[in-house]
Design brief:
There is one protein chain. It contains 5 helices and 2 strands. With 163 residues, it is mainly alpha-helical. The chain has a domain of 99 residues: Orthogonal Bundle (Muramoyl-pentapeptide Carboxypeptidase, domain 1), CATH 1.10.101. Strands 1-2 form a two-stranded antiparallel sheet. Strand 1 and strand 2 form a beta hairpin.
Length: 163
């Protein structure tokens, strides 16, 4: 009996012949697959280059500290709850002009992200200079109910950490 439309037996194909039925996958690369693979490789290489570039060490430490990032989050402890940038958790320490370091960075970050501060963004460099003093005075004036002296004391820390 020959294989035909009425014959239920499967039709055998000669060895080496590829199937062309649209429901059967053919061996070998599919059209467009090579381009997709090349595009994926290019994206991965570009991403690796960006990662390598950002991980490269810097020699200019003043630029690095001036470009420090501020990620503000809510923190709760047994005695206090408020916003922090992660540089300092000071609440009762007085900080003013001439101060340097992490407490100043904390102040600069909190001011830059504060709802009651509408002045220019501060450079987060850890130096309590004239720009930081002016920003603190602006925040104190806008917050209301605390002295406007340009110095961060307990009342100003509370204002910084709560809005």
């Amino acid at each position: 009996m020959t294989a035909g439309a009425a014959d239920p037996s499967p039709r055998l194909r000669p060895q080496g012949e590829q199937l062309t039925n649209r429901h059967t996958r053919m061996r070998g690369p599919r059209p467009g697959r090579r381009a997709a693979t090349a595009l994926t490789a290019a994206v991965l290489l570009l991403g690796a280059g960006v990662t390598t570039a950002s991980a490269a060490p810097r020699t200019d430490t003043s630029t690095l500290s001036a470009q420090a990032g501020c990620t503000i989050r809510w923190r709760t402890t047994d005695n206090y709850a408020g916003f922090t940038a992660g540089y300092s958790w000071a609440w009762n320490v007085e900080v003013g002009p001439g101060a340097t370091g992490d407490r100043v960075r904390e102040i600069q970050c909190l001011i830059n992200n504060h709802a009651y501060y509408d002045g220019p963004r501060l450079t987060v460099d850890g130096d309590y200079g004239n720009a930081t003093k002016t920003a603190v005075r602006t925040l104190q004036r806008n917050w209301g109910g605390i002295g406007v002296d340009g110095i961060v004391g307990p009342d100003t820390w509370r204002a910084l950490r709560h809005a």
